[in-house]
Amino acid sequence: MSEPDHPLPNDRQADPRGRDAERLPEPGLVPGSAASAGTAQSVRTVEVGGTALQVQTYPVTFTGDAREYFRIWIVNAALSVVTLGGYTPWARIRTRQYFYGHTWVDGHNFDYVANPWALLRGYLIVAAFMLVYLIATRFPFKNSEYVVAAIAVLFVLVYPWLVRQSMRFLARTTVHRGISFRFLGSLGAAYLSYGLANIVALFSGGLGLPWALFMQRRFQVDGLAYGQARGHFRGDVGHFYLIALTAMGISIAAGVVFAALALGVFGLAGLFSWHPRARSDLSLGAMVGLVAAYLGLLLMSGVVREYMRAAMMRSVLNNVELGGVVRLGASFSPWMLAWISVSNYAAQLVSLGLLTPWAAVRRTKYVLEQVQVRAIVSLDSFSADTAGQESALGEAASELLDINLGF
Amino acid sequence: MTQHQPDPTETLILRGVYFDGQSSRDREAELQIRGEQASLKIMSGEPLPQRQESWPQRVLVIEPPLTRVRRVIRLPGGGRFETQDDAGVSLLESRTHRNWGLGRVRRIEASWGLTLGAVITLGLFVWGFLSFGLPALARSAAAATPRSVLASFDQAAIKTLDNGSFMGPTHLGKARQAQLQAEFATIGKWAGGNYPYRLLLRNGKPATSDGAGFAIGANAFALPNGTVVMTDQLVALSRNDRELMGVLAHETGHVTHRHALASVYQGLGLTLLGTAITGDLVSAGTFAAAVPTALLTNGYSRQAETQADESAAAYMLGQYHTTKPLRDLLARLELDDKNASEGDVKADVRVKDMLQTHPGTRQRLDHLRALEQAARK
Ligand SMILES: [Zn+2]
Predict the structure, then answer these.
(1) Do B100 and B171 lie in a common domain?
(2) Which residues span the domain enclosing B106?
(3) Min Cα–Cα distance to chain A from B108, Å
(4) Residues A52, A6: contact at Cβ < 8 Å?
(5) How far is CA B24 from CA A76, A176, A227, B59, in A?
């Protein structure tokens, strides 16, 4: 959040305004859309060690449309089903491309450039493992328990590697202004943050969980690179504990309230009544009360979980630095985001999933449009770096096995 | 782009922005395609404002189209040309026959009518596959499964069921047990198929089952390799052994048709299919998919039940010339009343009927009676 303590390379102090003025309006862009929305909206001057610096703030805009995405989504679903899952990689890519392609910073959008055939190969490998696992768990053939155990142990052992692979793949396939991101986190760091940290979180009865989450986010951000600009995570673990404590306090308060409510319903429904007729009323009243209390608890735990996710996401975004010259800022409210997520779930449930595209666009738009990119250099001054191809297996595995990799 | 025949020699000029892949610098540029030649002209930006590069057009990679997303043409050497001129890029695609498949997909995505068509096609396909394709696949897979697998399946299932919470040792006397076993042996011979039939008599309400609804009560069921379990409670509910033999013949019908195995395969197939699809649809979609899965797996069993009832009817008509004993027992089971008779069972149209593993009892009774009448003619 605070610019003045910025570590600045001296040769990067060129006035970004000068270059910006020189940039031509983009040809062919739809008037009034991202082109105009994506240009820098504010310039601030700050003093660092006697030198004046201009910090330019670029808003992020999202131009996705729920109805348009609905059609893409439903066609994806139809084609995936008709091809018995064979279209899934293309569906995945089109979804990503839609969201990336409608995310604009400074007049340019993002692009997702994964190779569908590589994704398909990854999916097939994962599906083969899943098939063996499913068969081994459902059909108790000879020594099947060893097969199940072997697959489970293998998964646990390679999980950090898989996370790293999928981070690498995800970064490499993300392109902005002709340069792709990269992920350079080391294997050791992956096993520390996704192996050891998870074990610590598990055996410390949850006490270590905020630390584990912190380590994982730091691993993700520190490993990130855009061209030659390395990511740097400036967050501290204390903030993660603060968020977790807030969430815990709310859960306890909500638990007490709902327990009291449930007890009250029990009492009212005839716990103190001895009339035989009231017995059936008791069970009915108690049922209604219990269901209400259960739904209430479900809602509350959903809100708390989403609040935690949102608050951590904001904390992470606010602490991302790129190459010492770019910082992100997130100004969305964690409570608002929690509300959006929970109401999204409700809408998806009620619509039997049909509102999923609307929910995705709604959430993405809210988050992205409250993210700013602050830079002390022009965004066109980054240089590329060259590196090899990544395996799609990591990404396919994480998609299928639903590893949560989000920031 | 198909409304008029484009002249392939006509020069196509796309205006957009160029990135060289080495830096994040954006440069206004023009991509010109003349015949087989493509050339890029940089319109702005240092160091060379009027730089020009040329390639054969076929080495350009046009990224597949997506509604209202900026088009991308990848150039040799890591450069990218991005443009909002979707019409122009589409023209280039149709001239050079590129992105044919995904171009079609984009056209469907762009129109509500075509999208609706896709959804209807999807619905028909899913319905067809789930009601014909998957059951047929599961049946052939079940038929092709080797005996050794069936045997290990029976062993494992009995080991689980005999853990005490579902059922316990029978309370029937030795003589009664021997009598039922002897009668079942006749059915086993009649059913054929070379399965190692055996009858396990068990107590369906054991004291060990802490009352938690696990106990199976008055029931009978068959495992894939010919193991048939019948509970004391069912024996107690019967008035004569013909009723019980009707039930056991029904269960051997499940064995010879390999129903249990087929339903396991179906569940497996649904799970796999669900995973493949929900790889794209998110969590709420998974939930929505789980409901029809449950409904359908039970729906398959309805067909299986009818088939098993037909086996039972065949046996009973051969032995006793009537299906009435089985109908009587079914009525008592359904109404949970020792004195109930066939006529007391009402047609069931509640949601519960949809969720039941067995078809509506009324339907089954009618079907069994119809089979008997058909045999009399
Ligand atoms: Zn049956």
Answers:
(1) no
(2) 12-110
(3) 8
(4) no
(5) 32, 8, 9, 23
Report how far apart, in Å, the C-alpha atoms of B156 and of each of A208, B71, B149, B254, B345 are: 40, 58, 11, 18, 37
Residue-wise DSSP of A363-403: HHHHHHTTEEEEESS-TT--B--------HHHHHHHHHTT-
Return d(Cα B131, Cα A384) in angstroms, integer: 54
Residues of A numbered 64-103 whose beta carbons fall under 8 angstroms of chain B's beta carbons: which are they? Answer: 65, 68, 71-82, 84-85, 88, 90-92, 94-95, 97-98, 101-102
Separation of alpha carbons B350 and A309, rounded Å:
42
* pLDDT, greater one: B73 or B118: B73
Find which of A15-24, A326-335, B290-299 is predicted with most confidence, using mean pLDDT.
A326-335
B168 belongs to a structural domain: yes
In a domain, B82, yes or no: yes
Ligand 1: distance of its center to the CA of B312 in Å? Answer: 10
Half-sphere exposure of A236 (CA within 13 A, CB side): 2
Query: Is A304 part of the contact surface with chain B (CB cutoff 8 Å)?
Result: no
| For ion ligand 1, residues whose CB falls within 5 Å | B 305, 308
| Chain B contact for A24 (CB, 8 A cutoff) | yes
Identify the H or E element spanning B169: strand B168-169
Question: Do B171 and B73 share a structural domain?
Answer: no
Helix, strand or coil, per DSSP, at residue B46: coil
The answer to whether residues B346 and B246 belong to one domain is: yes
CA distance A20 to A34: 17
Residue A35, pLDDT > 50, answer no
Q: What is the DSSP string of A218-272?
A: HHHHHHEEETTEEEEE---HHHHHHHHHHHHHHHHHHHHHHHHHHHHHHIIIIIT
User: Does any CB of chain B come closer than 8 Å to the CB of residue A27?
Assistant: yes
The per-residue pLDDT of chain B, averaged, comes to 80
**What single letter denotes the amino acid at residue A251?**
S
Task: Give the count of Cβ contacts less than 8 A between chain A and B.
Answer: 191
- Is pLDDT above 70 for A193? yes
d(CA B309, CA A122): 46
The residue from B75, B110, B145 where one domain ends is B110
Residue with tokens 């989000």: A406
Burial class (CB in 10 A: 0-12, 13-18, 19+), B42: middle
Mapped onto helix, strand or coil, the DSSP state of residue B336 is coil
Predicted confidence at residue B44, as pLDDT, reads 76
Cα separation, B160 vs B153, whole angstroms? 11
Instruction: Mean pLDDT check: name the lowest of A295-309, B113-127, B150-164.
Output: B150-164
Residue B153 lies in a domain: yes
Whether residue B195 sits in one domain with residue B96: no
Residue B147 shares a structural domain with residue B229: yes
**Contact flag B152-A140 (C-beta cutoff 8 Å):** yes
- Sequence-distant (6+) residues with CB within 8 A of B250 are B220, B308, B309, B311, B312, B326
Number of domains observed in the structure of chain B: 2
CB-closest option in B115, B149, B277 to A141: B149
**B146 and B81 belong to one structural domain:** no
Residues 6+ apart with CB under 8 A from A157: none
Q: What is the CATH number of the domain that holds B93?
A: 2.30.29
Contacts of A131 in chain B (CB under 8 A): 272
Predicted confidence (pLDDT) at residue A57 exceeds the cutoff of 90: yes
Q: How far apart are CA A264 and CA A267, in angstroms?
A: 5
Give me the residue label for tokens 């009723």: B243
What interface predicted TM-score (ipTM) does this complex get?
0.76
- B167 and B47 both lie in a single domain: no
pLDDT-derived band at A41, boundaries 50, 70, 90: low
- Contacting residues of A for B279, CB less than 8 Å apart: 80, 85, 88, 92, 123, 399-400
Per the domain annotation, does B253 fall within a domain?
yes
In a shared domain, residues B238 and B335? yes
